[in-house]
Structure formats: C-alpha cells, structure tokens
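Appendix C: a fully annotated inverse folding record. The material below is reproduced so that readers can follow the format used throughout the book. The structure is listed first as tokens, followed by the designed sequence.
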C-alpha cells in the first residue's frame, strides 16, 4: 500500500512517524513526535491505546484489501473525471485503458 494515497493525512503522518521510529530501531513513542497537531496527537494516543491482542492476520489482511480497494476506486473516479475532460484522442484512449484495468481489479476484489 502506498500510504501517501490514503485520504486522511493525519493517519499518513502518524504512520510515517511510527515507521521512522521502527526503522531507527526504536519503539514508536508518540511523546517524541513534537510536530503533531493536537488533533493528530489525540488520534495517535487513541490508536496506541487500542487492544490489538484480538487482531489476527485475517483481520489485517481484510483491512488492507479494503484500503487498497478504496484507493483503486478513488483513482478510478479521478481518472473518470479526467476522461470526461480529455480532448486529445490518443490521450483519451490511454486513459480509457487505464480506467478499464482499474475497474477490472476492483471487480475481482469484490468477488
């Protein structure tokens, strides 16, 4: 998942801070993330307090699939709007092919 495509920028920022800590061999610690806004700090605090003992691999996989599917749907919607405004025939053909590929993937995930 490209986390930067996620629609909520607060989650992106929190995810990236946690990832940086982990990559630096540290346990993620929101007290050290001084660049968070009050809202982001509150969200990070809430997320860190959730009980994860009952979250299994299937639940994580399902959530990832849902996020990926959502991102693909958002990309398809953006591409659809671009298609409607495209005047160049060659560019229109390329965008239609991209759109069809995304729609196929979304439909396969929905089955």
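Designed amino acids, in order:
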């Amino acid at each position: 998942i490209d986390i930067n495509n996620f629609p909520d920028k607060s989650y992106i920022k929190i995810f990236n801070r946690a990832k940086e800590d982990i990559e630096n061999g540290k346990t993620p610690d929101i007290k050290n993330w001084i660049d968070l806004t009050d809202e982001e700090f509150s969200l990070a605090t809430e997320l860190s307090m959730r009980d994860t003992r009952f979250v299994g691999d299937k639940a994580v996989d399902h959530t990832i699939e849902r996020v990926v599917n959502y991102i693909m749907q958002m990309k398809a919607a953006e591409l659809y709007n671009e298609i409607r405004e495209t005047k160049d025939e060659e560019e229109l053909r390329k965008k239609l092919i991209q759109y069809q590929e995304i729609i196929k993937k979304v439909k396969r995930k929905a089955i």
